[in-house]
């Protein structure tokens, strides 16, 4: 059992850590980088991804030696989210942006106990934007309250849309079909190249909905709580409840908009994170 006072203290440690880790990103973003690939020719990892993750995990382990981790660059086996206090970490969300010197990059950390989110932190160190949420306490950007737009009508909605790094032909057909279906029905599309920042944009009311097929648990662990604390909703694209291991989600500024979008989406199933 983790007491609420302990959660607040852990949250404070986490905020300090992401700000320190962010310096590793700002020092490297406009320099030459050593880039490797993972699942596809456009699924990148850099030395900075690994350095940031190592710094965060080693720092947390010193402070909280019994805590567990699910982290993008050190995960090479089937994932399991258990009841233990668990940090779910994406050290650099938006690695493609980082490689190109695009400032839309961030560190994303979700802290879970008994499989439930206790807090989420998304930090863009280049733009100095810190999104935070403690369960039941609202969502904040640099300490100021933020809220989703509350938009309900699909024909007035600005939609965040990502293709992802997969080049599987079926996945690409699904992406194109969803774009073609929604394009005449919505106000417009935006693409930020990072799931965590896209979710943050929804939480602050700058876009009205966002869906994606292919992200991992570390892409949505923090953002899903921040959106809910900002008054938005996060569900499965099929219309059911969110499953963090499913590698798909749909978030929106209102339940009405989420369900309307769900009716219009072609679904794409792929291997889960826990398989």
From TrEMBL:
Class in the EC hierarchy, top level: hydrolase
CDD domains: IMPase (cd01639)
Annotated pathway: Polyol metabolism; myo-inositol biosynthesis; myo-inositol from D-glucose 6-phosphate: step 2/2
Cited SUPFAM superfamilies: Carbohydrate phosphatase (SSF56655)
GO MF annotations in UniProt: inositol monophosphate 1-phosphatase activity; metal ion binding
Annotated catalysed reactions: a myo-inositol phosphate + H2O = myo-inositol + phosphate
Protein name, UniProt field: Inositol-1-monophosphatase
Known EC number: 3.1.3.25
